[in-house]
Amino acid sequence: MSGAGGNATQQLRLARHHHRNQRQSHYSHTSFTSTDNQNVRCSPFATYLPTNTPNRVVFALLIINKAGGLVYNRTFAPGLQKLDGNDYLILAGTFHGIHAISRQINPAPAAQHLPGYRRPPTTGLESLESSHFRLTCFQTPTGVKFLLFTSPEQPNTEVVVRRCYEIYGDYVMKNPFYSMEMPIRVEKFDRALGGYLVRP
Amino acid sequence: MPGPVAAPADKEDNFKPLPPTKPFQSTLRYPSSRKSIYDRNLNRTRVNESSLASFAYLFNTLITYHHSKSGSVSEIETRLNRAGYPIGTKLLDLLLYRQPPRTATRPTRILELLQFVHGTVWRALFNRTADALEQGTEKKNEYMIIDNEPLVNSFISIPKEISQLNCAAFVAGIIEGMCDATGLSTDGVTAHWAGEGDELWPGKTIFLLRFKESVVERDEALKAG
Predict the structure, then answer these.
(1) What residue spans carry the region label Disordered (chain B) (predicted)?
(2) For residue B37, is it within any domain?
């Protein structure tokens, strides 16, 4: 792993750490009576804001093919901090590896399965959260991974990422000029995705 | 070693009778109702809608095949045109058969044919009419049928290096087959992009019909008398 990859993971770790600190500060300043305050991620007032608040944003979408290569990379909100192209590739490869590990490790006792049948697969990493963003990962049955970066306030990220998968199925898989496992340069896919995710 | 009875050592030694012909076994797979598409009434149009996704994958395979076999954009378009042509010749009869009883008339004039294609054919194939029908300004034998978003192109994005290619050439082939079947033959029907810089309809396509001079002359003679 090169130095840049190490940086990427470190950044993630730092982000999580920061997140934990912020959580504690929330606990010290607010008095929750409900038992599920483990799930509180942002200001308690956020729920009272109108649904179209500007801080609910989809930041970026990455598509990783089954070999761990980055085939699509697009940001949707203006003024985001960007990595350079190589770092995106490293991020994709690193995530692919972490995802594979998370599929293998499982602290729960192994579920009973019929002899002769394959062990049911685990889903692997599904989401990763920090104070500033949430990463939702959706893996298709063929091993393509959709990574959606959103703000933590964005609801229904699973629905959004599945809709992205549908758009991919329509405009990339049904396009005769796309070769499998290659970077996606498909005009109608870009347009449909923009129409769905870019806010006017 | 008691071998088989020695055959007379002449030409018959090489003779082997042909194996008996196998009884015919259909490879057609039937649905549980035992009714295949051939058992349906030709007039049942409402329930005969087919899945767009299935069509898209089939069309996808057709294009990939012809793309791999041909060296230029015009060759792909010609091949797609040839693939659509037999559909057009058969579709004319089917659609005339499906007209309400005792009202079916063959289009015998150019304008009738164009309106038939613009309305009836488009509705049968794509469930809507085409968006416009125009006559060429320079030549009298050129007509244009305009579709803002051809259904066959809905999932297809053309790469930059062959941006001239329009896969609606397949539909152009259907139209050409239909023109020939009515006896109003053409010098070819082609599909062209017209949505350059059009924000609303970037996939706008013009189907250009060039009727033969003799057909136009005959049509004018019919009109006169």
Answers:
(1) 1-29
(2) no
As a whole number of angstroms, the distance between CA B223 and CA A127 comes to 72
Asked if the interface predicted TM-score (ipTM) of this complex is over 0.95, the answer is no
B155 and A171 in contact by Cβ < 8 A? yes
- Rg of chain B over CA atoms, in angstroms? 25
Coil, strand, or helix at residue B163?
coil
The CATH number that domain A3-105+122-197 falls under is 3.30.450.70
Domain count, chain B: 1
Query: How many Å lie between the alpha carbon of B162 and the closest alpha carbon of chain A?
Result: 10
Which of B67, B155, B158 minimises the CB distance to A174? B155
Q: Residue A176: closest CA among chain B residues belongs to which residue?
A: B60
| Pairs of residues, one from chain A and one from chain B, whose beta carbons lie less than 8 Å apart | 34
Contact in structure between B144 and B134 (CB atoms under 8 Å): yes
How close is the nearest chain A Cα to the Cα of B194, in Å? 17
In a domain, B17, yes or no: no
Do the chains contact at B157 and A170, CB–CB below 8 Å? no
Domain that holds residue B90: 50-224
Type of residue at B98: R
Q: What is the pLDDT of residues B59-116, one digit of tens each?
A: 999 999 999 999 899 999 999 999 999 999 999 999 998 888 888 888 999 999 999 9
Taking an 8 Å cut-off on Cβ atoms, the answer to whether A176 and B156 are in contact is yes
CB B171 within 8 A of CB B150: yes
Segment A97-110, tens digit of pLDDT: 999 998 888 777 76
Instruction: Kindly report the nearest CA distance between residue A54 and chain B, in angstroms.
Output: 27
d(CA A181, CA A31): 51
Domain residue ranges in chain A: 3-105+122-197
Is B5 inside any structural domain? no
pLDDT digits (tens, 9 = 90+) for A153-198: 888 899 999 999 999 999 999 999 999 899 999 999 999 999 998 8
- Residues from chain B contacting residue A185 (CB–CB below 8 Å): 159
Is B179 among the domain residues? yes
| Cβ–Cβ < 8 Å for B206, B144 | yes
Name the 3-class secondary structure at A94. helix
- Give the CATH number of the domain where residue B130 resides: 3.30.1380.20
